[in-house]
From TrEMBL:
Domain of life: Bacteria
Keywords from the UniProt entry: Cell membrane, Membrane, Transmembrane, Transmembrane helix, Transport
Name this polypeptide is given: FtsX-like permease family protein
Major location category of this protein: membrane
Membrane topology field: Multi-pass membrane protein
Keyword Nuclease: no
Domain ABC3 transporter permease C-terminal, first and last residues per copy: 279-392, 734-840
Alphabetized Pfam families for the sequence: FtsX
A GO CC term attached to the entry: plasma membrane
Bilayer-crossing regions: 21-43, 272-296, 330-353, 373-395, 416-435, 441-464, 485-513, 730-753, 779-805, 811-833
Originating species: Streptomyces typhae
Compartments where located: Cell membrane
High-level lineage: Bacteria, Bacillati, Actinomycetota, Actinomycetes, Kitasatosporales
Amino acid sequence: MRGGSVTGLLAARGARTHRKAWAAVFAALVLTSVLLGTFALVVTSAALGHARVERYAAADLVVSGDQHTRYTAKPWGSEPETVTAGLTERVRVPERALDVVRGVPGVRAAVADRVFPVGLAGTAATGRPWDAARLAPYALRDGREPRRAGEVVVGGDARAVGARVVLRVGGADRTYRVVGLADGPRAAVYFSGGEARRLAGHAGTVDAVGVVAEEGVGTGALYGRVRQAVDEAGLRGAVTRAKGDAAGLRVLTGDGRGAAEDLTAAPARSTLLQILGAVAGTMTLIAVLVVSSTIVQALRQRGHELALLRAVGATPRQLRGAVGREVGRVAVAAAVVGAVLAVPAQLGLLALLQARGAVPSGLVLPLPPWLAAAPLVTAGVTVLVARLSALIACGRTAKVRPAQALRASPPGARRRVTGLVLLGLGVSSAGTATLQHGQAAAAAASAAAVLMVIACAVLGPWIATGAMRVLGGPMRRYGGPGGRLAAANCTAAATRLGAAITPVVLVTAFALVQLAAGATLTHEARAQARDAARADVVVRADGGLPRGALERIRAVPGVSGATEVVHSTVVLAGKEAGEPKLERLPVLGVTPQRLTRTLDPDVRKGDLAGLRPGTVALSTDRARALDAGPGSTVRLRFGDGAEGRLRVAAVYGRGLGTGDFLLARDEVLRHTSGTGRARVLVATDGAPRTLRAVGAAVPGARVDRDAAAVRDAVRVEPEDQALGEVVTGAAVGAIGAFTVIAVLSTLTLIGVGRRPELTLLRRAGAARSQLRRMLHAEAAAVAVTGLVVGTAVALIPLLAFSLAFAGALPYLPAAQAALIVGVVAATALAGTVPPVRRVLRGRYPTG
């Protein structure tokens, strides 16, 4: 027979004979293909994402400020590199850009757009000039356009033409007459051009300029003319940027026009890509380890069969070819099934992200038809991983001489040394994480977890031997004959037990790291925010607080302190591990008068009374990272890209709860898009009359006594927290699925291979109850050892991560810990007894 015919025959016979063994491999490969295909679709969709185009749908071009900031630095021994970060506050356009754009040939109209927050009947709305409505276009459904300062057009049909409405803009209430109803969103209010200019503030600037082309003028041609005109006029954004950070205006077309509408979409898209990329890498590693372990175990059970083929004359090439074809048939079918299931899985993940508010509603994540081919690529990767794993699994049998192939080969010293080296590298990486800050610490802790899990997989037989030295005594003493049998079996078959323990260690460690890392930060941040919040009341109002509200609240009898709080973001430029980096961080702007009566960030150095425009307070972690203290100067980029040199007034301890930076309220308001997000923290004597007086002092405001509302007003949450929680939850769910498949498949394959052994024990006189107790004891040994070792593996990087980021011990909710233990225990039991049920039936086993 020719080599190819022999290979095909062996592959076909092997696939038919070992259908049950390949069923576990098939399930693992299907899940791997689904996982890889889903992440490929989501990451590609995020890479193609853009802000939704609504307000500027009828504009051919939009001229806007550059909503990105840049930082250029030279890494160690390399050429200079430039990194960018999105800005979440409006970069405004000089008003003279209107005249420049209107003078461009082919421009029919250039319309200024100004957007500002409005309070309308206790709800938040958006104010704009009526001229800008044509850029959507939003047409009048009833009435006419506003012509005077006291007239407005409202969206939807909630009010009749001629009705009077009270609007709050910039802290001032004024009554307007509704003169028209317009299409479009209901939370929209349109003013006359002059009134919108007055209410929006920011004299001499506009939010954006919408450009409408003349009939017959193409968008491409008009873009070139407008771009040239803007550049020749030297137009730049209306802020002073850092050196090397360009502030030129952008000319947007197509889907890019949405970037001028929703300022959070681009930063959210970048964050989504970063988080998905990091989680996808981790999940891919888990998938490869599980698939490799499952295939190796499936072929290990057939070790004597493969060795016999070598002994009767099969060549190494024929053996590798047969195994490769056999695995390839299973892998191709599984990969195709997984590729098909990846599309609905991706749609489900995106729906979950949107339902939890993890991505802005204005961020569009497209799924073009050609993107459906991405799972086919990952299916090919799945098949490749399966083939490589198969070649590695049969490598020894194929290489040794036929006479030696039938001998069992115990794990050698080289494997032990490799595992110990990996374990040492993992511990060293965890130690490095405790000395780092920010992403460098997170990367070092993650590397430690990966290295230690791989080390445990390599050291599996020795871990199993050590575990039985600890568990063997109790099993023999309290388990009766079944326990003694289990201890003897586990001790004699350390390699087999190590193979069963490895997937439990893997999934336990990764699940703990993924869940506990986020839970620790969230738990500590909430605790610090709770301790920092000294106020018992929070006051807020849509459209901004009325002018003088803070002073009126402070004058109320029974009020010991009142602090206005504004949330925004800043961007910090620096280097990390020699690489340039821009870090966008949430910040609080506060009024410093009597600040510690309502907000106590735990000042360690300096005094918050000196917090004013031009100064900043730092958390202890950030001060240490910047090597700064009271009197030092730090450079920050505000949310609109403007750079500030700020003197450090104080250093405080509760950075996780209140953020790394505290700024003066007036400083923050200079660089924010609107004033509608301010809240007032109020410390009172708790008397009902005081609370009523606070409400009466601020007409139209909401007074909330709930402790969670006060804490949330103080707490500064990372912008990616919701996104991280959803993606982490999905990742842990996938890990849970791999837990079931990996443990079940490994234990099932081990059980199938042990049928002759168990049959012999039955014929030698062992009772069914004794064998059941033996199997239960073995399952308990696998679960306990895997959980203990997995917890130890996870605890080392978790300690490093928690100490570096939170300065506290790791935290995991009891329910999540119980879920991990329950899933592992149930799966270990389910994978131990059912595969050998036939041997335990009847009085006399038949094999």
